[in-house]
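Collaborator request, handled under Task 6.
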Amino acid sequence: MDGGVHGAQLVFVLLLFLVAAFAALARRLRVPYPIMLVVAGLLVSFVPGLPRVTLKPDLIFLVVLPPLLYAAAWQTSWREFRYNLVSICSLAIGLVAFTVTGVALAAHWILPAFNWRTGFVLGAVVATTDAIAATSIARRLALPRRIVDVTEGESLVNDATGLLALEFGLSMLMSGSPPSVVEAVLRFAYLVAGGIAVGLLLALVVEKVERHIDDAPIEIAISIVVPYVAYLSAESVRASGVLAVVAAGLYLSRKSSQFFSPEVRIQIYAVWSALTFVLNGLVFVLIGLQLPVVRAGIRDQSTGTLLLSGAAVSALVIVLRLAWIFPGAHLSYFIRIRFLHQPERVPAARNLFVAGWMGMRGVIALAAALALPQSIPHRNLIIFLTFCVILATLVVQGLTLAPLIRFLGLSGVSGPACEEREARRLMLQSALSHLEEARARGKAADDAYNDLVLHYRQRLEDVDDGANEKDLRHENIRNLTRELARVERNTAIRLRDEGRIDDDVLRQLERELDLTEAGLADARRADEG
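Structure tokens returned to the collaborator:
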């Protein structure tokens, strides 16, 4: 992009305006905002006179990818991730390998100028998925939880396997021969083990530091720095930066209940919610804006021929995912049932079809294509085809996913929140027991005790209806309420650690307790002021 610093500032402001405006429009139209932003960027790219904005691969891999991966890992339930690990690996490893192989073998039939090595590189570039658009639809329509968990887990891990496949593909193009099986296995093992080790080591250090800090700005700054340090540290030793960020995010998310204070947790979630929205919005707009850049690199083929080739490759990628999803699910559930003794059965065909239709591609695929060396044969064509696959999967699959879910009768079948209701019941019972013990020790004033007992008994009776009344009229009631909130929080954490609730339920319960404690702190400050 030309124009110097002022030109870059102007473009950045315009991009932020586009993100805000079209995200608001997407909310009004009930369309996932990533799809709306890609289309908006595509339409804006046709406006004459606008400066050309080029998506830099380093900007994606070094600036955008680490925090987005970290935020996604932070919101992932470790219990569900671990429980579904076989199914996640089936997609993140097996499907990536199947896609790369399928595209490598079929590329010559679609593009006569491609050999299998060039096809291998193309397959590696388009093999990774972006679950943001898909899961935003799935959650809104209350799709079965297992589908959402597996799809999100897949998107966390398959960036690493896709980039490894791309590394092998580029090596084959440069050397002319594929790596040996032993070399490939050893490289993959080091990539995974090294990345996870770096991420966990950093997470352990951060956990120890966090336990001695209770200052929101400092802790927010640390949380922003962590994904970058994890990614760069792993990349510096040629391990997987992606897996390092994911490992750090999963570990610190699970431990955060023990070192974040309620006030810090409320602020840090607000900051990260805004940060991830802006970053996601910018990259999806930038995807759409790349059309002139991508098209300018190919001058020897007609637009019709290019679009036909792009449609054929996009269809191939979609068909390959659907072809893998059914036998892959049967194999993974065979392993889960036979060897892991999980009380599961293979999902219904309609569930598997929806999971197959959620294989949308995003900015990582385009960044990988743009990062290809200039010496790679047909580099510009690979970039264009990748752009076509992203548009086809994001827009076509994204816009048809919601109608497909409704047509198959899967909307609103995620089941009742049994875990959450049971957790609330146990938390309230623990608080009441604590009150009884406090009264027996003579620590609770009679009036405060009676008010709080009535309050908690009413909440316990109404827990199935979601009643949640708060009556915080006196200082002694505030002190006891704060103590009871800590009891409830410890109970919720214990239930999570015992595997009786997952991390999503804990986060929901924690947020309510955080708001309660923050309200008590505000009331105390108001009284003292």
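The cover message to the collaborator said: "The longest helix spans residues 303-338. Confidence is low (pLDDT under 50) at residues 466-474. Please let us know whether this matches your experimental observations."
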